[in-house]
Amino acid sequence: MERLASLFEELERLTGVADIAYHEIRDGRLNPVSKTKTDQLGVEKWKSVHAEHPVYIRHDRLLREMMEHPQTAVVQDVKNDPRSADEFFLFGIDSIMVLPVMQHEAVKGIVVVASIGARHDFTEEEVQRAESLVFEYRDAFQLQHKEDPST
C-alpha cells in the first residue's frame, strides 16, 4: 500500500487534484482497494457507497470502452458529458481522469483522479505524465493482487 500512497502523492502533485483511488476489476465490476483521505470524500464513505451501488463494467459506457480499447479516459465536465456514469454524480465528481492498469495486455484495474467540488481541466501533459506514473508504479498494483491466485 505504501507504493500506492506514493503514486497518489505524485498524481496529486502533478494535477493538484486530491481525490485519487485505485480499483481492481474482478467479477465484472469495480472493487475499491485504496484511496486518498480527503475532506471531500472519506475512505469509509467511498467504500460504503461502492458497496451500496456496485459499479458493473457492462453498465458503464466509459469502462466498457476502456476494456475494449485500453486508454486513459478524461471527462472534463461530468455534468455535460454523455459518458458520465451515475457513480460520478453519487460521489459529486466534477471532472475525472481514469487510467487503465494493465497486466498481460488486459485491463485489471483503474486509477481514478477525481476532482470533487470544482472542475479541473486535465491537460494533455498531465494525462501523459499520469500514464507514465501508473506504468512506473505498476509493481504496486501487482502487490494488491498477489493474494488472489485466479489472476
UniProtKB/TrEMBL annotation:
<dbReference type="Pfam" id="PF01590">
    <property type="entry name" value="GAF"/>
</dbReference>
<protein>
    <recommendedName>
        <fullName>GAF domain-containing protein</fullName>
    </recommendedName>
</protein>
<dbReference type="InterPro" id="IPR003018">
    <property type="entry name" value="GAF"/>
</dbReference>
<dbReference type="InterPro" id="IPR029016">
    <property type="entry name" value="GAF-like_dom_sf"/>
</dbReference>
<feature type="domain" description="GAF">
    <location>
        <begin position="4"/>
        <end position="133"/>
    </location>
</feature>
